[in-house]
Amino acid sequence: MIGRKNNYLEFLGIAIVLMSIWSTTLFAQFSLNLNFYKFFNMTYLLIYFFTFNNYKYFSFFSMFILGLITDSISGIPFGTSSLAYMTIYKIAVFQETIKLRTNFFAEWIALGIALFIAYAAILIVLYLSGGSFEPLVHIYNFIGSFILYPFIWLVLKLLLIKLSDRKIND
Amino acid sequence: MNAKNSWFEQNNLRVFLLFSVTCLFIYLDNFNQKYFKNTKAVINDSIAYSSYIITWPIKEALNIPGYVMHIVTLNKENEQIRILQEEKQKLITDNKFLIDENKKIQRFIQEEKIYQNETIPAKVILRVNAITASSMTINKGAGDGMKIGNPVVKNNNLIGQIEEVNYKSSRVKLLNDINSNIPVLIGELLTQAIFSGDPSSKSKFNIQYLPKNFLLKSGDSIYTSNIDGILKKGILVGTVSDVKYDESIEKQSYSINFNYELHQTDYVSVFIN
Fold first, then answer.
1. b/e map of B34-72 (b: 16 or more CB within 10 Å)?
2. Stretch 105-144 of chain B: residues touching chain A, C-beta under 8 Å
3. pLDDT tens digits, A130-168
């Protein structure tokens, strides 16, 4: 029973990331023009968080596949999101290996660097592919994602602690 | 040299390989390589349909409050429609001009039937709003006669153009996509311009390349132009409204009215000729 719960919790990370990818299609059907997607990229934050917290199913290959799904859904050149996800994953893994010498602030700064490289990579690919893009929207998105991380971190930590407690009680 | 620190360590090699494959994908996609295009079409089809199946229960669950509200307001709406229909009927029988106008509309509907034969109905399976694109995926592909550039309409209003064709699905680039540029004819004088998507602006659209000193008027209709050789001439794009002129910057601000609600668009028609 505990083993099954363990698997369920491990699967939670990848399921939340997948939901964040599909959220672009879910929000598009509501009349409320909230345009959340403009101000932050939830998928980047979730990938960083779950990789940093050593969740199962987060690997270079899964980042590659998740990137292809994102690109296929949003219609941008294949591989663009994979490049961004793998960059964020690599930096999160590096930061995770030096976890003992780090604190939340260092984790946050490392996320900033990862996001900067990921957004730069996307803009370069979009520029080379000849498509139009709004650099300002991407800059706002980068800033929004960076600022939002502490809140996401807090919510996910509280949620995961609660789920772990329930697992122990069971 | 210690094997563990070697650059050719299995892990590093895997990372290098995946980064290389990613870069190769980007390269092949940009150059529209034939075999890659076919593989991409298969991947796109499978992701579009699996995404539709997976997100369908969530979409339905999220729609429940809307359904409840719809049932609650249904009686009220029915009463309003009944009153409107009575008023309309009275006006039609009373006014000869309106009767003539009605006959004219009926003739137009008959003419439209020929027009309808050139379209294929399609179901919207995915809608996407992202900073890089604004698009929808429909359930018709190359086998159904879809071609890149085909206009997609809803309620006789243009909503976008086919951007990518797979085997069993196609992606529609919506008018508010940043890469959407449609040649149009505006107003009574059918002035040529380019209607482009502008996600950063409030209206999400921009009318470019209008003649100098040209002033838009509220009520001006915007129709497609066949100047690019892809679009059919005369498809309604929208109607200009709320035109205001700011003398200090010598610029007009305006809104565009459409005859459809994009978020409620479940079925569309695609021009195949």
1. eebeeebbebbbebbbebbeebeeeeeeeeeeeeeeeee
2. 126-133, 135
3. 878 888 888 999 999 999 999 999 998 888 888 777 666
Residues 6 or more apart in contact with residue B142 via CB below 8 angstroms: B41, B165, B166, B167
The closest CB to that of B263, out of A28, A76, A134, belongs to A28
Chain B interface, best mutation among A14, A21, A29, by max B CB count within 10 A: A29
Q: Using an 8 Å CB-CB cutoff, list chain A residues near B55.
A: 22, 25-26
| pLDDT confidence of residue B5 | 55
Mean pLDDT score of chain A: 83
Q: pLDDT-derived band of residue B108, with 50, 70 and 90 as boundaries?
A: low
Q: How far apart are CA B50 and CA B126, in angstroms?
A: 10
What is the average pLDDT score of chain B? 80
For residues B165 and B134, what is the distance between their CA atoms, to the nearest angstrom? 16
Specify the pairing of strand B181-186 against strand B151-154.
unpaired
pLDDT of residue B2: 47
Minimal Cα–Cα distance from B250 to chain A, Å? Answer: 25
Reported ipTM: 0.82
Asked if residue B151 lies in contact with residue B224, where contact means CB atoms within 8 angstroms, the answer is yes
Chain A interface disruption, residue of B44, B129, B159, most A CBs within 10 A: B129
pLDDT at A5: 45
Query: Residue B35: its pLDDT value, please?
Result: 82
Q: Which two tokens stand for residue A11?
A: 């699967």
Distances (CA, A) of B109 to B37, B58, B112, B115, B258: 41, 39, 5, 10, 20
Q: Is A86 helix (H, G, I), strand (E, B) or coil?
A: helix
In the numeric block, the tokens 């590096």 are attached to: A94
CA dihedral for A108, A112, A113, A119, sign (positive or negative):
positive
Beta-bridge mates of residue B269: B121, B153
A30 interaction partners in chain B (CB closer than 8 Å): 62, 263
